[in-house]
Design brief:
3-stranded antiparallel beta sheet; alpha/beta
Amino acid sequence: MSNPESAYTIEVLEKGSYSKVPGYYVKSTATINVEDPPEPQQHNDSVDIKKIAEYLINSDQPELVFHIHGYANSEEDAKNRYNKACKYANSQDSGLTPDNRNCVFIGYRWPTESPLVQTGNSLESLPSLIVGILITSLVFSLIAIILTLWTNTASSFILKSLLIILLASGLGVWITHIAKATDSLRIIPNGLLLVFFAWLFGAIFSLFVKNPYPWLIFVIVFFVLLIGIILALIILRVTSYPRDRFRASNYGVLDLVTFFQDLQNEIEILDESHDKNRENFRIKVSFIAHSLGCEVATQTIRILSDVFDPDALIHKPSSKIGNVFRLGRLVLVAPDIPVESILTSRANFLKSSLMRCEEAYIFSNEADLALRLASPAANYFSFPTKTRDRGYKLGNVTVDKKKSLPKDYGIVNCQNADFTNPTPPSEYLEIRASSNERKSLHCLNNNVLLHEKAIADSFTYFDCTDYTDCTDTERSKRGILSFSKKQSALNFWDYVQLCGAYFFRFPRYINVHGGYLEGEFCQLLINELAFLGYKGLLKRYSDSIHQQTGSNQSDELLLNSKFSKDCKSKYIQVLLATRKTPFAQGESAKGQIQTIRIT
C-alpha cells in the first residue's frame, strides 16, 4: 500500500512467499515526532490488504497470528524476530501441514525510538517556562558558588560585577540558543532583566550581607535542586519510554484497529460473492506480544470488542470481535502492563478483554530490570497507586519458590504424579522486590481471597527466571535471562551483577527483558503456543513417542509428563491454568481441537 493517507503499509516478509504460512510486515505510518514529514513509501514488494483477505476467505478454518514488538525495538530487530517466527511456522517441526493452509502470519511495527537517539531534541522541546527556570537556576547557582569562593571585600566588587554580567549574559545566550527558545526568551529585553537581577543579587551579598555564606549555601542548594528536577525530566525523555507509551496507545493501537477494520471490510465485500455457507465464518486471531507490545495487543482487543459488544455490558464478553473475527490465543512475553490486569478489583480495566481469549499465557521473570526499575519509575507520575507493590508490572509476577521448593521446576502446581487436580496458579504467584520484600497475589488483592472465577487462574504462567539454554549466537548452555543461580529469591548483589550484565555487558551480556526470544527452547515454546495452542504443543510429544515406539497411543498424562521434564531440564517453572475461559469449553474449544487434530 502506497497511499500516503493510509494508517499502515503492508509488505511481504523477506520479499518472498512461504510454502505453508504466508508472512507479511504491517507498519504503522505514524512518525516518531509529530513534526516529521511522512516517510516516502518505496516498497517494491508492497501488497494490498485484499490479498490477505482473499487468502483467509478461501480457507476453511482461517487464522491470523500477530507478532508485536516492544519498547525501543529497532525496525531491524523487529523484522528479524518476525522472520524467525515465520520460518518456524513454515518449518517441518511446526505442526502446520501444507494441506492445512489456513494461517497468515503478520509482524506489526508501531512507531518506537531507541533511547538517546534524539538527545539533541530534548532541550529544543522544553517548554519556555522550564527553559527560563533552567537558565535562572544555572546563573544564580553559579554566581552563589563564585561568591562563596571569593573574598568578600569592597575592592573586589567591580571585578565580581563584571564577571557576573559576563556569566549571566553568556549562559542566557547559550541556553536560549541551544533550546531554540529565543522567541520567548530573547536576550533583549528578557535577558537584560536576568543580567540586572543577577548583578543585584551579587551586589547585595558583596556589600550588605555581613555573613553571606549560610545564605549562599541555601541559594546553591535551592537552585541545584531545581536544576536536578529539570535534568530528571530531560533524562526521562531521553529514555524515550513515556514517548513510546504514548505512541503505543495513540498510534500503535489505533492504526492496528484501522487494519482490522479495513480487513473486515475487504472480507465482507468478498464474502458477498462467495457461494459457500458462511454463517459461522470466523477468523481466529492470536497474538504474540512482547513488553510494551502487550499494551498494544490488549488495548486493541478492548477497543475492537468492549465498546460495541452488548454482552460486555452484562459481564458476558464473547470471543467474537467485529463481524468476522474471534479471539484465539494470547501470548504475553514480559508484559509491560500493570499487575492489576490479573487481580479481581474495580481497577481491572482489562478483565473483559483478557477473558475473551481461548487460551492465555504469560512469560515472566524476577530478573527483568526493565520492568522492575525503569517502567515503575517512568509510570510513578501517572499510575494511580499508593504502594510500591501495586506499581509493578505483570512481567514481574513469579512463582513463590517457598511453596514450590527452590529446585522444583517443570509443572509445579500439579504435585501428584498424574497431573490431575492442579492447584490454582493464584496460590503460587507473588511479586518479589527482594528476598525480604515479597507479596503474594492474595496480599496484592487487599487480602481478599481470589474467588473461583479469578482471571489470574485463566492464565498459564512460565517463570523463566532460571531459564538455561543455548542461543542462536552462543551454543554453550547458560542462563538466558539471569545468571540462573536457582535461589528462592534474588538479593541485592544479584541485582548489582545483573545491572553490570544488562547495561554494561560485564562479565557477559544478559538480555533480562528480551531473552525469551533468544533462547532456543523458549522461542519454540512461544511460537507453538501462538500457532497451535497447548494441545498442539503436546502433539509434538505425541509424534515423538510414535517415532520412538511405533505406537499411536499417548495419553495426556504421558504428554504432560514429557513436557514437564523438558521445562525442568531448562529450569522453567510452569503453572497450568485451572480455570478455562468460557470459550475454551464450547464450540471454540472444539474448533481448536479440530484444527490441531490431536490423535
